[in-house]
Amino acid sequence: MLLGVCCCVLRAGITAPVTNLPVKIIKGINGHPLNQATYMDIPLQQQIDMIKKLGFNYYRFDVPVDSSGNIRNETNFYQLVKLSKPAHIGLLPMIYMMGMNFNDNSQVSYNKGRTIGNVFAQKYGAYFDYFELGNEQEIALAKPGTSGSSPDDYDVNKLDVLASFYKGMIDGIKSQRPGAKTIINTGGWFHFVFFDLLKKKNVNFDIIGYHWYSDMDEYSKKVGVDIVKTISARTNKPIWFTEVNTAFGTFKTSEEEQKKWLESFTGYCRKYKAVQAVFIYELLDETKLPMSSGGERFYGIAKWQRKQFALKLGARVMTTAYKK
Question: Read out DSSP for 258-277?
């Protein structure tokens, strides 16, 4: 999880489809079962059981790969696949863009992306319907001292390299899985202009991924910006909020406040047909991260207590906000 820089946009006269009935939605949770010590110390079966019990139907996880697209921890991966299937838990991989280098030219970057996408989809594609490409990549493109809310805030040379890598990954994935859907995300705030830039670069992905935390939400309300309406006015693509939570979880926020915000935001998302998925970040407090990580240790909806994980007050939000 990364946070962007606070920024401003002008409110426009924009609309988005609103429904009077609750929208059926993917109810997701994030975790790090392949690469973070806290998760790797907890049996995968226990993680899947928690996810199922709490009403989630999708598990988003980051997938460390080598520059050829091979998963680095295949043993845990295949076990996760085996356990998730009978529990009817879908899996959303966030694939790291290994080997991307802003010193590369566009063709080299495309070739690297295509290799990862092709090999990953060839070896593992049968287990997924959706593929998320990288994580908050636009932040690395933002010029120093800018907010990311204007197209001029982004380095055009870096954009060329990144756009080419995206294109390669997408072409590689769809060469193996033509019906697969690809997701590109941003780190939130008002970085939706990043998608305008990708459109100009002819990056043909399928789903808008967006990260949204309570500090962003508070600021957007203060300046009168409705994030779903704003995104929907710029694109017809579905919107997936692939990370949502209070800022730094319960580091400086009470469990009751976290619960209220999660209920409020999931309720907000239910109004819009464009919003097809909401993923809370994350399942477990990462107690094994160094103390210097601060709030990064406290995003979980389950906390370490008396030598075991106990649910926080907001853990059951998906069973109350999105009843079947």
Answer: HHHHHHHHHHHHTTBTTEEE
Cα atoms in the Cβ-side hemisphere of radius 13 Å centred on 114: 11
* Contact status, residue 268 vs residue 217, Cβ threshold 8 Å: no
Query: Considering only CA atoms, which of 207, 222, 317, 309 is closest in space to residue 261?
Result: 317
pTM above 0.85, yes or no: yes
Helix (H) or strand (E) holding 200: helix 193-200
**Domain 26-321: assigned CATH number:** 3.20.20.80
Of 125, 186, 200, give the one whose Cα is nearest residue 156.
200
Over the stretch 251-263, which tens digit does the pLDDT of each residue have?
999 999 999 999 9
Report the alpha-carbon angle 279-264-268, nearest 5: 75
Taking the C-alpha atoms of residue 241 and residue 1, their distance in angstroms, rounded to an integer, is 13
Average pLDDT, the chain: 92
Place of tokens 């199922």: 52
Beta strands in 198-288 (DSSP E): 207-213, 239-245, 275-280
Rounded CA separation 55/317 (Å): 8
| Joined tokens for residue 294 | 């601060």
Over the stretch 133-164, which tens digit does the pLDDT of each residue have?
Answer: 999 999 999 999 999 999 999 999 999 999 99
C-alpha 87: how far from chain center: 22
